[in-house]
Amino acid sequence: MKYKRSWESSQIIDAVAKESLRRYIEEKSRTALFIEDVADNQEAAFHKLRFLADLPTEEMVDTYGKDQALDEPIVTLVMSGTLMYWNAMLSFLPQIADRTEPLDVPVLNNAKAKEFVGRRIAYAQGRIDSFDPNSYDVFPFNDESINVLNTAARGNPRDIRMLARGCQQVAAENFRKNGDPTVNKEIASLVSQAYATILREVQ
Predict the structure, then answer these.
(1) Per residue in 148-162, pLDDT tens?
(2) Distance (Å, whole) CA 112 – CA 142
(3) Where in the chain are the domains?
(4) Which label site among 23, 103, 120, 199 has the fewest CB atoms less than 10 Å from its CB?
(5) What is the DSSP track for 72-124?
(6) CA-to-CA distance for 159 and 175, rounded, in angstroms?
(7) Residue 53's pLDDT is what?
(8) What is the Cα–Cα distance from 149 to 166, expressed in whole angstroms?
(9) How far is residue 153's CA from residue 158's CA, in Å, rounded to a whole number?
(10) Residues 51-92: tens digit of each pLDDT
């Protein structure tokens, strides 16, 4: 679904709701929405999540229910977040929590962490469709730096991504100064130490 950058979140949510209804009625298909890092927008996000989880609205049923059965949810939410988010949802939105199946993401070993970083790089470069898990590059990272990040993140993909972004910022500054964008073991260690407090708070 396309939307304008100038739209406020309420406009985007409304457009998503209308598009989900259109797909359900015209294409006989439910919509799956993937929502990443919900914990970063906790309270403001809860009301929007409840609106989406409760679709169709009574108004939709009154308008389209005569021609199309609207007796089931038309949207499935797949959300990623921390334990802190799950506990907050239990408190603020028990109705949705009761309908939610929590899943723990297995921790990544070093090989899987490398592939995770490789896929993120391929996605950023617009090459994700041709990504080959048996042959890929993780430059400007290397095996040693990824191992350091994975150890600091305890195999958590969300934290690996956060640390990798921090490394990219340091590497970008190094590139500006000396033309070398490499994220080596030393940079990974420095960034991991700098983010240690944040990681303790979210783990």
Answers:
(1) 999 999 999 989 999
(2) 14
(3) 9-97, 110-202
(4) 103
(5) S--EEEEE---HHHHHHHHHH-HHHHTT----PPPPP-HHHHHHHHHHHHHHH
(6) 24
(7) 87
(8) 11
(9) 8
(10) 888 888 888 888 876 666 677 889 998 888 777 778 888 888
